[in-house]
Amino acid sequence: MTDVRLNDRKALVTGGAQGLGEGMVRALAAAGAQVVVADLQDDLGPKVAESLGAGHGFVHLDITDDAGWDAAVTQTVDLLAGLDIVVNNAGVEITSLLVDLDPAAVRKQLEVNLLGTALGIKHAFRAMRPGGAAGGGGVVVNVASVAATIAFPGIGVYSATKAGVDRLTRVAAMESGKLGYGVRVNCIYPGLVPTAMGAGLANDCARLGLFASPEEAVGAVIGLTPSGRLGEVTDMADAVVFLASDAARFINGVGLPVDGGMGM
C-alpha cells in the first residue's frame, strides 16, 4: 500500500515470523513504520526482522503468557523508543467435527486466540495510555476471521474464538474511549488465504470427509466468494496498514471484512 504512510510509527506484530503476520510486518515497514516481530519462533523471527534493515527488531513472545507480554512490550518500547501500533495476529486453528471435539484442542484455541488477544489489548493499553511507557495513544488491530461471520463445517471452535475476538475489539474500543486512553481498536476478518494454515484447513476438511479433496474444499470457499478468488497475504496486510494509519482516524470499534464478500 504505497499511498498510506506510517512514518515514525512504532509497531509490534504478533505471529510476525511467517504467513499473514510476516506480510503485515513487511507492509507496515514498507509504509514507514519501525516494526518489532513478536513470535515464538526464535529461528524465523530474527531473520524476518533482519531482512527489514536497521531500526526493526525481534522479541520472543508466547502470547498466552501475561509476564511474557509485559517483557515483550518493555523491550519493544526500549528498542523503538515508543509504541503506537499493536497487531494481534497470532492464532491457531485446529479442525474438528463437533462430535469429535478434543477438550485439549478447544483449550488451546481459546488460550491462543482469545486469551492471547485479550492480553495483547491489555498490554497495548497499559503502554499507550497517558502515563504509560509510550503514553501517546495509538492503534490496536486484532485479526479475527471470516469464520466469525459464516457457518463453515469443521471449524466450530475456531469460529467461536474469532467471534470472541470481534466482541473483545468492540468492548476494548469503548473502554479506551471512556477512559481517555487515546487508542483506537479495530479488527479485520480475513478470508481464506493459501498460507500454511489455509492449506492445512483444506487438507483437514478433506480428511474429515467434509469434501472429496482439498481442492474441492478450496473450490467451495471460492464459490462462496463474490470476488471469485482466495485472499492474498497482501490483501490482509494492506487492510492492517490502512486501519493503523491516520486515513482511518475516525474508524473505531469495527470489524472490517477482507474476504472478497464471502461473509456478507
Which labels suit this protein?
264 residues, alpha/beta, Rossmann fold, 7-stranded parallel sheet
Verbal overview:
This protein is of the alpha/beta class and 264 residues long. The protein has one domain: Rossmann fold (3-Layer(aba) Sandwich). The protein is built from eight helices and seven strands. The chain has a seven-stranded parallel β-sheet, sandwiched between helices. Helix 1 packs across helix 8, helix 3 packs parallel to helix 4 and helix 6 crosses helix 7. The longest helix is centred in the middle third of the chain and has 26 residues. The mean pLDDT is 96.
Helical run tally: 8
Strand order of the largest sheet: 3-2-1-4-5-6-7
Please give the domain count. 1
Mind describing the biggest β-sheet? 7 strands, parallel
Furnish the topology, listing elements before pairings:
Elements: E1 10-14, H1 19-30, E2 34-39, H2 44-51, E3 57-60, H3 66-80, E4 85-88, H4 103-128, E5 138-143, H5 156-179, E6 183-190, H6 196-207, H7 214-223, H8 233-244, E7 255-258
Parallel strand pairs: 1-2, 1-4, 2-3, 4-5, 5-6, 6-7
